[in-house]
From TrEMBL:
Name of the protein this chain belongs to: Pimeloyl-ACP methyl ester carboxylesterase
PANTHER family: MONOACYLGLYCEROL LIPASE
Classification via InterPro entries: AB_hydrolase_1, AB_hydrolase_fold, AB_hydrolase_sf, Epox_hydrolase-like
One function term, GO molecular function aspect: catalytic activity
Pfam family, one: Abhydrolase_1
Gene3D superfamilies hit by this protein: alpha/beta hydrolase
Superkingdom of the source species: Bacteria
All copies of domain AB hydrolase-1, residue ranges: 21-246
Amino acid sequence: MTTTTVNGITIGYDDEGTGDALVLVHGHPFDRSMWRPQVEHFSSQGWRVIAADLRGYGESTVVPGTTPLPVFASDIAALLTHLGVEEFVLGGLSMGGQIVMECVRLFPERLRGLVLADTSAGPESEEVRRYRREMADRLLREGMAGYADEVLWKMVARHNAEAGAHVRKMMHNAPPAGAAAALRGRADRPDYTATLAAVTVPTLVVVGSEDEYTPVADAEYIRARVPGSALVVVDGAAHMPNLERPEAFNAAVADLLAQT
């Protein structure tokens, strides 16, 4: 277990390998263990791979209330400064991808490349914003178990039992107050379309072919707006292609890293 204190909270993180830095941001309601296949693979391929638990998740401090995406981005920047990492390739999945876009908005000069996995950038409808706020209230009332069981087979394709077991465990273990705070923050997120147009570094957009939460159309929206970006659709995967089909996901990321 590795932890440190930045921005007044404790953050748990993995920091493995040596070389240029690849930083990975998990989604909701997960923790840094979702990136274990990537940490193990790329740290053996000459990269320093850093994956942290966002505030409210895993081994990091739970801060009730609302956690806006700029706060997550600030935590990442502070952790990397603490670790002596000034420039890095940054990747995120789902909410993690939206946090990556927030990092692009706040400190683009530190970024060497981007991985935007199973995420969305365009404006959210008022219906989605209302859903996030209502779900936050529900998680505080009921805990994570009911929600986790309802959404599991949207997070991963049903044929992947091993990935499903991992995802179920992460969701059941997520602190309700942390997950609720993140949902409220996402309800207030901006439209990142203009941010995408300003990206100047190599960018990979990747999505599972069976993703219901952020379907291929959402990935195509991002691909069309990031100059020079590449789109990879991972066949047979849903919302978690990095866990469902790690070899295919890692190969796509390796192609991106070779350009940075």
